[in-house]
User: Fold these one by one.
Assistant:
Number 1:
Amino acid sequence: MLSFFPDYASLGTPEKEQISIHQMLAMTTGLPFDEETYPIADSRNDAHQLFLSADPVAFMLGKDVVHTPGTTYQYNSGTTLLL
């Protein structure tokens, strides 16, 4: 995934280097994204933060991997934005 974002190489980690396009499509990147716990208008909602971010790509690529890529499904609008 990171090879498609050379301008954001500084946000890379070994874990993020493992994330494939297939995992992005399957929403199994391991990147956290919570858009269900709080309403969309709540500033704690990740989708709210993403859409108001001055740099949505940096917002997503700046997240730490919390699950090994390819192992855990989580609906993730941020991954859709990256695709």
Number 2:
Amino acid sequence: EAKKVLILLHGRGATAENILTLADNLQLDEFALLAPQAANNSWYPFSFLSPVEQNEPWLSASLQVLGSMITDIATKGIATEHIYFLGFSQGACLMLEYMARNATRYGGAAALTGGLIGDTINADNYHGDFAGTPVFIGTSDPDPHVPVQRVHATTTIFKNKNAAVIEKVYANMGHTINQDELDNVNKILSGS
């Protein structure tokens, strides 16, 4: 019955139930929520800044989970422009990597403390055009897991693929989610 879908991706060591608690702070009229659970509470074993090979085959398997979800959603008659993403930390990294590899017009996305995956960013992996998809990327500076330089590099790649990116860097916020980030997520979900 839902007209839109929000895919929520949890961070390392967390659960699908954890990320779903964010729903209490979100405007979710017309949305179905999907929150996959990573095996052993981790999408891939090492830092997102490790060489990609070190995180295989887990990274590819996790990207495939997202791809299968998108295919399944499409079979239910929901177009990609009505599919939204929200990820925190490792979940944000996975979400950004999936989106960059499969750029198209999505409903919107919010990456709360994350960046593209790999010791270096391999732009050859990234295909398609976001066609104005609204994307919010928020992070702390400093953050113990995600260097702000990687966030900036991710924003640049998304903008180059025609995403409408809002990037916000919060001084000394820590590895958490703040109210301003949730307000920006709600703007994307409501289309404002």
